TrEMBL record:
The keyword Zinc applies. This is M3 family metallopeptidase. Its cofactor is Zn(2+). Residues 127-239 form the Peptidase M3A/M3B catalytic domain. Gene3D superfamilies: 1.10.1370.30. Belongs to the peptidase M3 family. Pfam families: Peptidase_M3. Binds 1 zinc ion. Keywords: Hydrolase, Metal-binding, Metalloprotease, Protease, Zinc.
Length: 503
């Protein structure tokens, strides 16, 4: 395996360089040669000798772990050894994605004739009691739809469609599932499972709408607002200069020593900086960098906890296991990140901020009830992403048509009177067929909480040290050695099921 390890090390150096350049691009808008760095990675992946070496290991008798290492490398190298056309297409896809990414990162919305950041829009949606104002803030996010299409978003979708076709996959969704070692029929039952509980969801939402809006229906621009009506503490002003200490203490309770980890934070909004949240794993267990955009509200800690969860996950992996670390499923990493994000509603974290812990606890208990009611709604945006690759699209109107069609089919909700905000979600451009990772990550967390309780007789909040240990030994350590489905079964003894979210 020595030669394979060497190959993985070489690849790792180039990927780290690529990641550092991405970090600079996302935080400052400067591109110091992303494409060149990507081509350098491709050089290694395309090399026939390298691929031959991996294939030669496929025929050998190997230990289980080595077999998995070879499988991971083979999966990632294989697409580069099919045809020259596919490699050319791949490069074009990368170029187009980068072009559009820059437009997204540099774009700023207008509200009331003034430039606003995504953080400000989020604050209006969470706090403004004027419903019309919130509606304006909600639709402000559609301002970038046209720009993305003018600059080639549909071209990018077509390139991905063509790639999947030449690869021999049924469509780009199927291609992505295969690339991520997931079952092609993964989503087949979701629609019917959702339909089963949709009437109950709608009824539950109606009660909240009546109580907090005096209306029968929650509109998209009410979603954040209603959450902060249920739990006003979300909007509490906090001093963000203390963020590191607060986060460090939370992770410390799980025996996770944040200061020993080389995690860099860039948390303030700026011109030309991406308005999303990211963790750039430059090198697993050596260098992680967090991009976030927060100002001064308690709910903004959610993104910091999520991204820190990613960073910590990286540092709990063995940095020497470069190949196995590549085999960690996106579902596991988003699951772990969401798990830590969830501590926003736990006394272990909010206890630092609020004096009346009982009152806040009651707020967050109701908030969780509400969130549970909505837990399956994100299937809608997951399926919208799919629909882009399963239908012919020629214009912006086609995309909007698909958006409403999908929303009606999935949630039974009709079209609104303005263009739907979609392009602002960076995932459609940079991370296609990725959104299920968050959703399935939540299912995974629900499963982990349940299994932990069964095994240890207490909740993760009651036994944080044991939970930290459980997370390391049962989830993080084996996470690269098993495909997602196998890992899920190994931990729970059961098949993956959306029901975990509803129990
Ligand atoms: Zn994440």
């Amino acid at each position: 395996m020595k030669r394979l390890t060497q190959l993985a090390n070489e690849l790792n150096v180039r990927k780290a360089e690529y990641s550092r350049l991405n970090w600079t691009l996302y935080t400052t808008g400067y591109d110091f040669g992303i494409e060149g760095a990507y081509e350098k990675i491709m050089e290694i992946m395309k090399d026939k000798e390298n691929f031959g070496l991996i294939e030669s290991y496929m025929e050998q008798e190997l230990s289980k772990a080595d077999k998995r290492r070879v499988e991971i490398l083979h999966n990632s190298f294989k697409p580069f050894h099919l045809t020259d056309e596919l490699n050319a297409l791949n490069l074009k896809i990368q170029q187009k994605t980068n072009e559009l990414l820059k437009i997204l990162n540099n774009f700023r919305y207008q509200l009331d004739g003034r430039e606003v950041s995504a953080v400000e829009l989020a604050q209006v949606l969470s706090m403004d009691s004027d419903r019309e104002k919130r509606k304006e803030a909600y639709f402000a996010r559609n301002q970038i739809n046209g720009l993305m299409v003018e600059n080639g978003f549909i071209e990018l979708i077509d390139l991905r469609k063509e790639y999947a076709k030449q690869y021999g996959a049924e469509n780009f969704v199927a291609y992505q599932l295969e690339a991520n070692e997931l079952d092609g029929g993964l989503f087949d039952s979701w629609q019917s499972e959702l339909q089963e509980i949709l009437p109950q969801m709608t009824e539950g939402r109606k009660k909240f709408a009546q109580e907090f809006l005096g209306e029968d229906e929650i509109k998209p621009w009410d979603e954040q607002y209603i959450q902060s009506q249920i739990a006003p503490s979300l909007n509490e002003t906090v001093d963000m200069s203390e963020y590191y200490t607060n986060i460090q203490e939370l992770f410390g309770s799980f025996c996770i020593d944040l200061p020993s980890m080389n995690i860099t934070y860039d948390i303030s909004p700026r011109a030309n900086k991406s308005e999303w949240g990211y963790n750039f794993t430059v090198e697993t267990g050596k260098d992680s960098r967090i991009l976030a955009n927060v100002k001064n509200k308690y709910f903004e800690y959610g993104v910091l906890l999520h991204e820190t969860g990613h960073g910590v996950h990286s540092f709990l992996l063995d940095p020497e296991e470069k190949i196995l670390n590549e085999g960690v499923s996106g579902i596991v990493s988003e699951g772990i990140a969401n798990l830590f994000q969830g501590f926003l509603y736990s006394p272990a974290f909010y206890g630092k901020f609020f004096k009346d812990a009982e009152k806040v606890g009651e707020e967050f208990r109701r908030l969780k009830e509400y969130q549970k009611l909505n837990s399956l709604r994100s299937i809608s945006r997951i399926f919208f992403d799919h629909s882009l690759y399963k239908n012919d699209i020629a214009s912006l109107d086609d995309i909007h048509g698909l958006y409403w069609e999908n929303q009606l089919a999935v949630l039974g909700e009709g079209a609104l009177d303005q263009a739907p905000p979609w392009a602002y979600m960076i995932h459609f451009t940079t991370h296609p067929i990725y959104l299920h990772n968050y959703f399935m990550g939540d299912v995974t967390c629900a499963m982990l909480e349940q299994v932990f309780k069964e095994k240890h007789g207490g909740s993760m909040e009651e036994m944080p040290e044991q939970f930290g240990q459980f997370l390391r030994s049962e989830v993080i350590e084996p996470s690269g050695t098993l495909k997602y489905n196998d890992l899920f079964q190994e931990i729970s003894g059961r098949e993956f099921s959306l029901k975990y979210l509803l129990d």
